[in-house]
Design a protein that fits this description.
Blueprint: E1 3-7, E2 10-12, E3 18-25, E4 34-39, E5 46-51, E6 57-59, E7 67-72, E8 77-82, E9 91-97, E10 114-115, E11 119-123
Parallel strand pairs: 2-11
Antiparallel strand pairs: 1-3, 3-8, 4-5, 4-9, 5-6, 7-8, 9-10, 9-11
Amino acid sequence: QLHLVESGGGLVQPGGSLRLSCAASGDTLNYYVIGWFRQAPGKEREGVSCISKTGIIKYADSVKGRFTISRDNAKNTVYLQMNSLKPEDTAVYYCAARARVFRLCVTNLSNYDYWGQGTQVTVSS
């Protein structure tokens, strides 16, 4: 079974950077479309970015130009590099995987089947 574990969150000042990691076990992450999501206090979970099996990448408008999603196949890990962080980026960040059969890079959480536990990102103001 595929298991996902996020790490790398923490407290950062506005304008700072963090790199989140999504480490997989139980299966090879290259078989899956991977998405990053976040949930701010009092708000619904929203899509941040996704990367397909063939390298197609999408970003939410709110993070374009600031966040970068990538894969490290040797480490079976997907990353989210976050630069120029803003207070409104404060949220719990989750990585998720679609079922193996699916190929489309999407940012709707209903399309994802496997979820990590989340990691807290706090951007002070």
